[in-house]
# Entry
Amino acid sequence: MFKLKKQLIFPVIFVAFLFFLSFSISSLRALQLNSFNPVLGILALIQRETGGIIFYHRNLIQNEKLEKEIDFLRNRVNTLNEFYLENNRLKNILSLKQKSPLRVITARVITRSTENWSSSLIIDKGSYNGIRQGMTVMTYLGLAGRIIDTTDSTSKVILINDPALGISALVQRSRQEGLVCGTLGANLMMKYLPEEADIKPQDIIITSGLNQTFPKGLLIGRVIETGKEFSGLSRYAIIKPAVNLANIEEVLVVIP
Amino acid sequence: MRILNFLLTITGFGILEITFLNYFKLFLVKPDLLLLGVISVSLFLDLKSVLVFAILSGIFKDVYSLGQFGIHTILFCLWGFTMVELSRKISLDDNWMRLLVVLIVALLDNIILGLSRVYAGSVIPLGIFLRTVFLSSIYSTLFFPAVFQLIKRIPLNSR
# Structure
């Protein structure tokens, strides 16, 4: 009986030691790693630098290859960004096309005016696509201009900031009417407003549809400033167009 | 051969003017490369060639602009003729003198174009009128040395 107990005592102690070891191993590991850390760090540095010297040529070739790959990927990211922006613009146009009761033709801007005394652009759709002189041109943000000339495959658009274009407009809030004209600058001018006209900054200006050239209710822009005409007989308002006329890339031509 | 060179030069300048120069607009104005081209050729070509160059440049400009058709053609011919006659009477070899003449021609060109728009019924605020006249002329003048050097290198004289 005593012999059997004596035979059991060693395995029990061994198992107990294993249990102790397994519980204390994490603290032992931490102790060991902390003490060896600086040495291991120096060794790793030496190993890395030696590797760098030994494999210098291989790394050089690899570096050149990776740099080319980075250039290629940068170019690709740039192209994809362009696609992303174009996709957003086209989505907006498509959404307007679906929501709007107006029948529209989508066209791309291919070039702009040569001179400084007019504001116009040329689009890639013409009479072959059903575009006629006098049709309204807009973007998904608002009114952009009017078709003044067409060929089979192109059309010339006079933009709303050209002084030759007058648009019958009204203030959305107060229904005050006026004539919006271009100034060749970045802003438009609403003229012939009576002295007591109810118009103030931040008012929205839309087309009135009175001269039948432009459909009623198209957004032109927002009032940023009002003032008195030089004669003192009437007032004017400076309007910031809803459309950024300097950066139009796609337009919608409204079919009456 | 000469006409082909003329056409290529004018097309090159014209395309540059309606595309890339839009990115170099300063206060909404850009230099008039075709006008500078006409002035440049009038400094070393004979009157007949200058008029041919002016007519072709004017037509290109008129096609892509909104103004009355033909106004640029007429004006370019006028400036070409004036420059040839002027270079016979006074020496335009000095760079500063040349720049001064270019500035005067650009100013006159812009004033006539602006007034023609006003005469046609457009109401242009005085500030914008003056800004376009002066800035556009100065901007064009600053571009002249580059255009002149470029045109001199193109074999426009070869038959």
Remarks:
- Chain A has two domains: 2-54, 103-256.
- Chain A has a mean pLDDT of 83.
- The first strand of chain A starts at residue 103 and ends at 112.
